[in-house]
Amino acid sequence: MAQTAGLGLQFVAIIVLGRVVPGVSVDGATTAVWGAVLLTILNSLLAELVAVSDDDSYYSALVRRLVARNFGRAKGGTPGLLVVQIDGLSLPILNHALRGGRAPVISSLMRDGGATLHPWIALLPPTTPASQAGILHGRNDGIAGFRWYEKASARLMVANHPEDAAEIVRRVSDGAGLLVDDGASVGNLVTGDAPRSYLTMATIAEGAPSDDGRRLRGFLATSVNYIRLLVLMLGEVVKELYQAESQRGRSVEPRMHRDLHYAVERAVTNIALRTVSTAFVIEEMYRGAPTIYVDYTGYDAIAHHCGPERVEAIDALEGIDRAIGSLLKASRHTGRAYRLVVLSDHGQSLGATFRQRYGQPLEATIAALLPDDTTVVGTTDSVESAGMGQRIAAELSRGPGLGSLLTRLLPRVLGRFRRSGGSGPAAPPPDVVVASSGSLAHVYFTSEPGRMTDAAIEERYPGVIEALAHHPGIGALLVRSAAGHALVVGAKGRLDLAAGQPDGSDPLAAYGPRAAENLLHLESFSNAGDLILLGALDGVSGEVTGFEELVGSHGGLGGWQSEPFVLCPAPLGVTEDSLLGAPALYRQLVVWRAQLRSERGD
Prior knowledge:
The protein is globular and about 90 Å long. The two termini are 34 Å apart. The chain is α/β, with parallel strands linked by helices. The chain has 3 domains: 48 residues, no CATH class; 362 residues, Alkaline Phosphatase, subunit A (3-Layer(aba) Sandwich), CATH 3.40.720; 156 residues, Gyrase A, domain 2. The strands form 4 sheets. Strands 10-11-12-17-13-14-15-16 form an 8-stranded mixed beta sheet, sandwiched between helices. A 7-stranded mixed beta sheet has the order 2-19-8-1-7-5-6, with helices on both faces. A two-stranded antiparallel sheet has the order 3-4.
């Protein structure tokens, strides 16, 4: 193990210095061991303090080992496709960061004419499971949000629970995923049918095949500097605690409470997961994988808690930009040339939460409108980044020493995020389940097996539809009419999406020209809620009302959450007139992959 060898050398050096340097003495082996550990920690800290970037230190050492291991291997062949997903980053915020000099690697790709930047449109719901399923498998119908409830099985689906992520893959995979041809999935929710998956939620429960498991254990043992990782994570925790207090002291609004649990989650996501993911990608590049897809989640996780445009989130983006630079430097020495595509799966929208605005969560508001004996359950405990501790712990458990220590500690520290479970509410199910994803909420009345109509809901729960439609935190409500049409209800009007003409004011006017198309698409899912609620949108500020306790949200309509991007090599270009929906991006990536297969390597 590299770090063990380094510690050993420092131990020997301290013993030797104690014997040959006048005036220097070492009490014994224990003192020498602690001295070696202290020197390693100080070296990692000083490296950060003097801004020695990851690609100039840690990853350079990894590349040198891989180059040596692959010395003499023939170069050439067809170029590979390396796809980097920056989770949750909208095109407007990327452009702002580029103008501010906060993403210099991406900027240099564009300024030298080597890459072009394009928008694409994420259809409802703009969440990672829906977008990644579409991008990696070409299908995402039936993914109703980040979480949803299925009446037939009384099961709550939460995309960052391993068993639910695996179920999503079983439903959308047809064996033709983007990564099926010896590709690699790193840090994703779904697999893209990759034969090798690392840090991928859908494959954590099943584990790696035995041969890959042995190889992975050896790779982690020689490539992950656990002492460095722990030191950098500790620094990130301290940084988060300071920034949270600074935000509170400056009375920044909207903001949310950020405690020590979140500080550790941030360190896992923004440091540990990014570091290990980058190492896995570099390893796969030297292995020669034809297609690699990696998801960097640090920006998304921090933007949820701090705000998508806040300095903390942009700092995370800058770290991801450096990681992309590391991958580009590593690609100079790989046997297969790689063409880089950078994209996002959705954006985020800023806004105070429903609870912050109105003093209680959405499910409590709904419960107050129903009979006293009605049980109402809300499902917002697990945010999108909350499974990161489980991912990183599962992979580090295959490594020795401090990797096993992290495995034991991280699930305990982050255990609070597993409260809701992936198997759904306990039997018997509650009368009402409110499944929220950002500024989108599905409301399920569980006593009826199928979709309830407005007339059926009104008969059982008189006045609840009108009361919710007139609530200031709810911009629009969709329900199926007795005629089978999708009916949108707002405070000042109704819109039958089949007829197309509003009765009164158009309740979707604030949400843009594609709002009706988006809702029709979502309403067609068999697992959509009996009621679908959209959080209110401020037409001036662009802020949304989120139903989760996150000031940066996505999953509904409004703001920049539906405005992701794709950056591609200029010679490839976009072949579709409009990249509408994640499956369109899958088709585009398949075209690019085919183009590269017809091209000779450098």
